[in-house]
Amino acid sequence: MTEYYSIEKALEYGLKFAEKKGAEQVEGFSSNSREINL
C-alpha cells in the first residue's frame, strides 16, 4: 500500500510541477513513476 501511495503523491506533485516547469517535465516524471510501479 505504501508504494501505491507514493505513486499517487508523485502524480500530484507532477501536476504541480507541470504548472511551474512544463508538460515535458511531467512526461519524464510519469515515466519514472511507472518504473517504480512495476
Index terms:
38 residues; elongated
What is the share of helical residues? over 70%
**Number of helical stretches of at least 4 residues:** 2
Order of helices and strands: HH
Cα Rg: 10 Å
Q: Tell how many strands the DSSP assignment holds.
A: 0
Mean pLDDT: 65
Strand content: under 5%
Our measurement of the CA-to-CA distance between the termini, rounded to an integer number of angstroms, reads 14 Å
Shape: elongated
Indicate the structural class: mainly alpha
Uncertain spans? none
How many independent structural domains? 1
- Give the biggest sheet: none
Q: How is this structure best described in words?
A:
The chain has one domain. Helix content is 89%, strand content 0%. It contains 2 helices and no strands. By secondary structure, it is mainly α. Helix 1 runs antiparallel to helix 2.
